[in-house]
């Protein structure tokens, strides 16, 4: 006889696990958005909100001819989570990794 699947994963229900994963993704996106704004203040080489080159992974970005900060933040979050290999364009993969890894002054760091 096959035993039924456990109702809990690590002491949590599947609904709680999905909720926690969504919260982790939201926190990572927020932290990357915050870091991008801090980088923009301190480095002149960071493009403005509508000055990014188009991102091939986002068809809307290609259609517009430029990327938005929110799309760049999504790529930074992939780099932060260790999924940079999912970014198909090598130039954007490197750019997202560089943005994520770029150091800011310790006086500008935040716990967010």
> Largest sheet, described in full?
none
Low-pLDDT parts are none
Q: What is the CA-based Rg, rounded?
A: 18 Å
How many β-strand stretches? 0
Strand content: under 5%
Sequence of secondary-structure elements: HHHH
End-to-end CA span: 49 Å
Structural class: mainly alpha
**Count of helical segments?**
4
> What is the typical, i.e. mean, pLDDT?
85
**Helicity, in percent?**
40-55%
- What general outline do the C-alpha atoms trace? globular
What report would you give on this structure?
It is a single chain. It contains four helices and no strands. The chain is mostly helical and 112 residues long. It is globular and about 45 Å long.
Write the layout of secondary structure elements.
Elements: H1 14-42, H2 59-64, H3 69-80, H4 90-101
Helix pairs in contact: 1-3, 3-4
């Amino acid at each position: 006889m096959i035993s039924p699947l456990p109702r809990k994963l690590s002491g949590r229900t599947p609904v709680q696990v999905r909720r926690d994963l969504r919260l982790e993704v939201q926190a990572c996106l927020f932290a990357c958005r915050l870091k991008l704004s801090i980088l923009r203040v301190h480095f002149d080489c960071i493009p403005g909100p509508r000055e990014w080159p188009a991102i091939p992974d986002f068809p809307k970005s290609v259609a517009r001819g430029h990327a938005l900060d929110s799309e760049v933040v999504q790529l930074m979050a992939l780099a932060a989570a260790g999924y940079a290999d999912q970014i198909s364009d090598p130039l954007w993969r490197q750019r997202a990794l560089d943005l994520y890894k770029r150091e800011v002054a310790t006086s500008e760091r935040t716990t967010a």
